[in-house]
Amino acid sequence: MRPDSDYVLRRQPFFMNIMAQQKKILISQKAALANSPYTPLMEKTGAAIDFIPFFRNEALSSREFRAQRINLAEYTAIVFSSRTVIDAFFKMAEELRVKIPETMKYFCSTENVALYLQKHIVYRKRKIFFGNGTPDSIIASIGPRHTGEKFLIATSGSLSTDITRAFEKTSMNVTAAMFVKPVSEDISKVDLHAYDAIVLYASADVHSLYENFPDFQQGDIQFITFGKSVVKALEEKGLSIALSAPTPQIPSIVKAIEIFLNR
C-alpha cells in the first residue's frame, strides 16, 4: 500500500535530519576492496567514505638513482618494506646491468612482502627473513648471525624512515637508498571542506595537499593520521590532528574512524 501524502510529509523532516547528520570521510588512498573493513564500518555508522589518492609512487630513473652514489654490487643484504620498492629495486638493477648474486640476503618487514620476492627470484633458493611489520622485528630477524653483512635499506619517498632510524641505533653497516619517489596527484578540483575528516598516511600526502592548495586553511576539517612521518609534516604546517594511529588504543585507521564517528 502506498503511503498517503500526509505520511510522506510527516516523514520528510526525519529523512532530512538523517542526511544532515551523515559524516563524510576522505581517505588519501586508492579505493579499498569490496571485502575491506571499511564496508561494514560504513554500513554500521552510515558514514560516507571516499578514496582519493593524494600522490602516486614512481620508480626513480637510473639518472636520479646514480645521484645517490650507490653501488648495488657492494651490498650483501637488503631490507625491503613494500612491494613497490621491490619492483623498483630489481628494475634499477636491470637498468644498471647489476647482477644480484644468489648469496644476497633479504630482510623484509612482513611475510607478505617477503613472498612477493617470488616475482623476481627463485624464493626457495635464497636466504630470506621477515619480521612482523615493525622495524624492531626486522632487526630481530637479523640477529647476531647476520650483523656482519653490508646492509642496503631500500626506501620510498625519504631516506629517513622508521626502519632507517631503528637501524641507526645499531652498530651494523647500513646505508639507505631511495628507489621510489612520490609524485603529487591533481586533486585541485576536490572540495576538501565537504569532508568532516581527512585520513593521511604519509608526508607526501601533506606535500600534495599544499601543492594543490597553496593557501589551504584547515577550518573545521579534522585530520586522522597513520604513522609518525605524516604527524611531523602536519605539525610543521601548524595543522591540528584529531586522532593518530597506530597506538595500543587505536591500532588501525578503521578503529580511528570509528572513534571519530562516535564522538
Describe the protein's architecture and organization.
- 27% of the residues are buried.
- The protein folds into two domains: 5-54 and 185-262, 3-Layer(aba) Sandwich (Rossmann fold); 57-182, Rossmann fold (3-Layer(aba) Sandwich), CATH 3.40.50.10090.
- The chain has ten helices and eleven strands.
- With 263 residues, it is of the alpha/beta class.
- Helix 6 (135-142) crosses helix 7 and helix 8 runs parallel beside helix 9 (228-236).
- The protein has helices at 5-21, 38-45, 62-66, 83-95, 111-116, 135-142, 162-168, 203-212, 228-236, 253-262, and strands at 24-27, 48-51, 55-59, 77-80, 105-108, 127-130, 150-156, 173-184, 197-200, 222-226, 243-245.
Topology readout:
Layout: H1 5-21, E1 24-27, H2 38-45, E2 48-51, E3 55-59, H3 62-66, E4 77-80, H4 83-95, E5 105-108, H5 111-116, E6 127-130, H6 135-142, E7 150-156, H7 162-168, E8 173-184, E9 197-200, H8 203-212, E10 222-226, H9 228-236, E11 243-245, H10 253-262
Parallel strand pairs: 1-2, 1-9, 4-5, 4-7, 5-6, 7-8, 9-10, 10-11
Antiparallel strand pairs: 3-8
